[in-house]
Amino acid sequence: MLILGGFFTTEIGRLFRQVFSRGSKVVSGWHYNSDTGTVDSPSPQQAANEAGVNVDTICLAAMLSSEHGNDPQTYKEQIAFACINEARARGMSVSKLLLAAKDSRHSGKFGAQANIENGEPYSSDRYASTKSVPYEDDMSIASLALSGLIDDYTEGARQFDSPKAQDTLYAKGKYSLDADGLAAKRESEGKVEVNPPDINPRVLRFWKVA
Q: What is the pLDDT of residues 62-87, one digit of tens each?
């Protein structure tokens, strides 16, 4: 029905995907602390035990839920590969990559990508966010990506970001760089943008080493 405005139709679509496409939460008692930017409980190992998977899988699933939880499956498949590619390039496990934080108070815990405790504008604290509880679809995609059963269309990209979200948070004073500023930073580091098929580059773009 066209009487609904854009915000409402978008929100209805988001809720529909969450209820009917994402399945159920795979971990109970998930508590994100908005003051510290970390998940107080469960620990990554406890979450993995409850979900019946290894720590790499639960961490990757949490990243998918946190970064693009309600976006199409293709988006989540490809950010999974960016994370796997980065971990491989660094010679470490996916869980070690995702649980490492610049602020030692946050290391070893699920949490936000930005350092919430240090105030605005936020600085980067870790590779990607793992603050949101994963759902069944996140777990399925994480398992398939780690098993090599889906394809990587990122050309080996190792980083990703959302220009739309970056600009929104920059306008609110939460980030020090807008999307163009972040792109310039990536390019100064010798990276080039990659835009896989069927992904809106305004919502999600990837970066590979040139």
A: 999 999 999 999 999 999 999 999 99
DSSP one-letter code for 134: P
In a domain, 64, yes or no: yes
Q: Are 111 and 37 in contact (CB under 8 A)?
A: yes
Which tokens is 26 given?
A: 């795979």
Q: What token pair was written down for 88?
A: 């491989």
Model confidence, pTM: 0.90
Task: Look up residue 7 and give its two tokens.
Answer: 């915000």
pLDDT digits (tens, 9 = 90+) for 96-114: 999 999 999 999 999 999 9
Cβ–Cβ under 8 Å, residues 97 and 86: yes
- Dist. CA 58–CA 94, nearest whole Å: 10
Which residue matches tokens 């990122």?
154
Please give the C-alpha separations between residue 34 and each of 37, 112, 126, 134, 152, in angstroms, as whole numbers.
5, 9, 16, 18, 33
- Domain containing 155: what range? 24-209
5 belongs to a structural domain? no
CA distances from 177 to 38, 159, 200, 208 (A): 23, 16, 21, 20
- What's the number of domains the chain is made of? 1
